[in-house]
Amino acid sequence: MDVTPIKTKRDYRRALKEIETVMAAKRGTPEGDRLDVLVTLVEAWESKHYPIDLPDPVEAIKYHMELKGLEPRDLVRYIGSRNRVYEVLSRKRPLTLRMIWRLHRGLGIPAESLIKISEDQAA
Predict the structure, then answer these.
(1) H-helix or E-strand containing 33?
(2) Phi-psi domain of 95 (left: phi exceeds 0; alpha: psi -120 through 50; beta: other)
(3) 78-86, Cβ contacts within 8 angstroms, sequence gap of 24 or more
(4) By the number of CB atoms within 10 A of the CB, which of 24, 57, 111, 122 ranks highest?
(5) Tens digits of per-residue pLDDT, 34-88?
(6) Mean pLDDT in the chain?
(7) Which residue did the predictor score with more confidence, 51 or 91?
(8) How far apart are the first and last CA of the chain?
């Protein structure tokens, strides 16, 4: 297996093309192993050169609400009163550490998404 590191955009494009040629490879075969290595290299390149920013906390909460079919009233046990839930969802009240912990443990929302500081709060 002759695989080289991805150092340039040209190397990156070449690796993507090569992935296309071995995409249907079966696990445990030499082609499948090659695919695994190429995908790992491409993922490393992309995470370094095209990082994905985390969503803001409210968007993360709304995403998980939609994903799980939750209504604002379902967040009362994690955030507090119904009014407090609406304040958080409308960005009038920041999340507290206790809210973050409960949302993370109860709904599985990544803590990293919930503790991201918005530009408004940073100023």
Answers:
(1) helix 30-49
(2) beta
(3) 78/102, 78/103, 78/106, 78/107, 79/103
(4) 57
(5) 999 999 999 999 989 988 777 889 999 999 999 999 999 999 999 999 999 999 9
(6) 90
(7) 91
(8) 52
pTM of the model: 0.56
The residue written with tokens 């609406």 in the block is 86
Q: Using an 8 Å Cβ cutoff, are 61 and 71 in contact?
A: no
pLDDT at residue 122 is higher than 80: no
Of 101, 109, 60, nearest to 79 by C-alpha is: 101
**Structure token digits, residue 84:** 């407090």
What is the C-alpha separation between 23 and 41, in angstroms, rounded?
A: 15
